[in-house]
Design goal:
Elements: H1 4-35, H2 41-53, H3 66-69, H4 73-80, E1 83-87, E2 97-102, H5 109-116, H6 122-125, E3 130-135, H7 145-151, E4 155-156, H8 159-166, E5 173-178, H9 181-184, E6 194-195, H10 202-210, E7 213-220, E8 227-228, H11 236-248, E9 255-258, E10 266-267, E11 275-279, H12 293-314, E12 327-328
Parallel strand pairs: 1-11, 2-5, 2-7, 3-4, 3-5, 6-12
Antiparallel strand pairs: 7-11, 8-9, 9-10
């Protein structure tokens, strides 16, 4: 039985993740800009000088901090749901990997907890691997927030950034790509298993260019952490979402969780549902600097089959009904 103090620490751990995810970028951008018009203007000027001098760091592997990745608050976030990391096979550190992460969910809580922190001991389960979760490049244009992201090993999902990571002389690089992207957040419906994957082949081309093995991963329970307002595909609301996605890079959506103070009221605290991230066996990929469409399609199909098999093998142990199957778009 958890003590009241432990329950509150877990709730605070989950809540601060949500607040950081939603508000840290805009708030610090506004703060840095606002300070320019106060007696503290020098702080903003010095930071902005640093900001531009350090501009390319995010595309060159970032600047991770093992101290921050090991913060105790991430263990509280882990215990709140709880979040688990399941290893199915050994992943030798003598090669590089491209992890495909599914589904995106609303905030990708499972992938962040498992690949950006050491709360579930990734480095102990997969010794020699260096995970790098990649996200929208535009997030690294936000002051302070970019430094916060880099501290967790997060990098931009740009060709320059990905090629840099997988070209390092030290093997064991593991790029983690949420393949469905922000578009998939619009399908983060509790109980549904809808993945955007059929036409997402850039990650396969990346693996072929570097000879990196493809690794499917699936986070059971990720879509159940929030409730989502769904709009009909022919509605003006859905059109606004897709248009915004094309212009900005992410799709705004209406979602809610529970209140920090009451389980019966709505709020921004995610529902405490179990999240289990299962890391599947690798798919060996040869190095091919200029892969043909046939080669890309071949390994893309192998990946889809491996992901589907991973889901089928683990769904019942993760509380998913046997009659449930993945749906690909």
């Amino acid at each position: 039985m958890k003590t009241m103090k432990k329950q509150w620490l877990e709730a605070v751990g989950a809540y601060q993740y949500v607040l950081s995810f939603l508000f840290m970028g805009p708030v610090f951008s506004l703060l840095v800009f606002s300070l320019l018009f106060t007696p503290l203007w020098l702080f903003s000027v010095l930071y902005l000088v640093w900001f531009f001098l350090d501009w390319d760091t995010s595309n060159q592997g970032g600047r991770r901090s093992e101290w921050i990745r090991n913060w105790t608050i991430w263990k509280h976030l882990r215990d709140y749901h709880p979040i688990k990391l399941v290893k199915t096979v050994e992943l030798p550190p003598d090669r590089n990997y491209v992890f495909g992460s599914h589904p995106h969910g609303i905030m990708s809580i499972g992938p962040f907890c498992n690949f950006c922190t050491e709360s579930n001991g990734f480095s102990q389960q997969f010794p020699g691997l260096r995970p790098s979760l990649v996200v929208l490049a535009s997030l690294f244009h936000l002051p302070v927030y970019r430094d916060y992201l880099m501290a967790y090993g997060v990098c931009p999902v740009s060709r320059q950034s990905l090629d840099f990571i997988l070209s390092q002389p030290q093997r064991g690089q593991a790029v983690v790509i949420v393949i469905g992207g922000a578009q998939e957040a619009l399908y983060a419906i509790p109980g549904k298993r809808h993945l955007i994957l059929r036409n997402r082949k850039g990650f396969v081309r990346l693996a072929l260019r570097h000879g990196a093995s493809l690794v499917p991963t699936y986070s059971f329970g990720e879509n159940d952490t929030f409730r989502l307002k769904i709009f009909a595909t022919n509605s003006w609301q859905h059109l606004c979402q897709t248009t915004f996605k094309k212009l900005i890079g992410f799709a705004p959506c209406i979602f809610w969780g529970r209140s920090l103070f009451s389980a019966n009221s709505w709020g921004l605290l995610p529902f405490p549902v179990p999240i289990t991230t299962v890391v599947g066996p690798p798919i060996p990929v040869p190095r091919c600097l200029h892969p043909t469409e046939e080669e890309v399609d071949h390994y893309h199909m192998l990946y889809m089959k491996a992901l589907e098999q991973l889901f089928e093998e683990h769904k019942e142990s993760c509380g998913v009904p046997a009659s449930t199957h993945l749906t690909f778009t």
